[in-house]
C-alpha cells in the first residue's frame, strides 16, 4: 500500500515537499521517503503522525489533534516498543545548512494493513523543536517537548495507478453507484 502527504507550512499554502509512505505487506515496515525544504537550518525537528486529518488548502496543523496513540501509552522514541511509545512517534528529522532534509525512515509500528495502527487519512506533522523521546520534563511524556507545529500534511492513500483515494469522495461515489444499482435493478 502506498500513500503521499504534501506538507505545507502551518496555515499557509506554501508547500515544503511531499512524502511517500509505502508498505509492501502486513509484515513489512512502512518506508517514508521524500525531501522537505524551508525548515529551520541545521536543526532537529520532532516528526509525528497526529490523530486527525486537516484542511488540504492551508492546513491548521493544531487541528490535527494529539499524537496518534491508539494504545494510550506514554510518548517515546521511535526505537521504543509499541507499548513504550505512541504509534505516531517518529522521532526527529535533521535539516542541513539550507533548511532541507531528505527523509528515508522505516518504521514497523505505523501501519496501513492493521486498522488500529493505520496512519491512513491522518496527519504527518513537523514540530519546531527537538523531540526528547519522552526523557525530559514537563510535557515530555505527552509531546516529547517538540514545540509548536510548523508544517503538516494529510496522509492520503493511493491506489495502484497512482490515483488518490479520498475517503469522503470515494464513499459518496460508492453510495451513488449503489443507489443507481438498486433503482435500476
Automatic annotation (TrEMBL):
Keyword rRNA-binding belongs to the record: no
InterPro entries: SOD-like_Cu/Zn_dom_sf (IPR036423), SOD_Cu/Zn_/chaperone (IPR024134), SOD_Cu/Zn_BS (IPR018152), SOD_Cu_Zn_dom (IPR001424)
Keyword Cell division: no
Required cofactor(s): Cu cation; Zn(2+)
Principal EC category: oxidoreductase
E.C. numbers: 1.15.1.1
Cofactor note: Binds 1 copper ion per subunit.
Catalytic activity: 2 superoxide + 2 H(+) = H2O2 + O2
Xref: Gene3D superfamilies: Superoxide dismutase, copper/zinc binding domain (2.60.40.200)
Domain of life: Eukaryota
Superoxide dismutase copper/zinc binding domain mapped to chain residues: 17-155
SUPFAM superfamilies on file: Cu,Zn superoxide dismutase-like (SSF49329)
Assigned keywords, A-Z: Copper, Metal-binding, Oxidoreductase, Zinc
UniProt GO molecular function: copper ion binding; superoxide dismutase activity
PROSITE patterns for the chain: SOD_CU_ZN_2
PANTHER family per UniProt: SUPEROXIDE DISMUTASE CU-ZN -RELATED
Family: Belongs to the Cu-Zn superoxide dismutase family.
The protein's role, per its UniProt record: Destroys radicals which are normally produced within the cells and which are toxic to biological systems.
Annotated protein name in UniProt: Superoxide dismutase [Cu-Zn]
Lineage, highest ranks first: Eukaryota, Metazoa, Spiralia, Gnathifera, Rotifera
Amino acid at each position: 500500500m502506498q500513500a503521499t502527504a504534501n506538507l505545507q507550512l502551518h496555515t499557509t499554502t506554501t508547500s515544503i515537499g511531499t512524502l511517500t509512505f509505502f508498505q509492501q505487506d502486513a509484515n513489512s515496515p512502512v518506508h517514508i521517503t521524500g525531501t522537505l525544504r524551508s525548515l529551520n537550518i541545521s536543526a532537529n525537528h520532532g516528526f509525528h503522525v497526529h490523530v486527525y486529518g486537516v484542511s488540504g488548502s492551508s492546513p491548521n496543523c493544531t487541528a490535527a489533534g494529539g499524537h496518534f496513540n491508539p494504545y494510550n501509552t506514554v510518548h517515546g522514541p521511535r526505537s521504543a516498543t509499541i507499548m513504550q511509545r505512541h504509534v505516531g512517534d517518529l522521532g526527529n528529522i535533521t535539516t542541513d545548512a539550507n533548511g532541507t532534509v531528505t527523509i528515508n525512515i522505516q518504521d514497523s509500528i505505523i501501519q496501513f494493513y492493521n486498522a488500529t495502527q493505520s496512519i491512513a487519512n491522518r496527519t504527518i506533522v513537523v514540530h519546531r523543536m527537538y523531540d526528547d523521546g519522552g526523557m525530559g520534563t514537563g510535557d515530555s511524556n505527552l509531546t516529547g517537548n517538540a514545540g509548536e507545529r510548523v508544517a503538516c500534511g494529510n496522509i492520503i492513500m493511493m491506489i495502484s495507478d497512482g490515483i488518490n483515494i479520498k475517503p469522503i469522495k470515494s464513499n459518496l461515489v460508492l453510495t451513488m453507484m449503489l443507489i443507481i444499482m438498486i433503482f435500476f435493478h
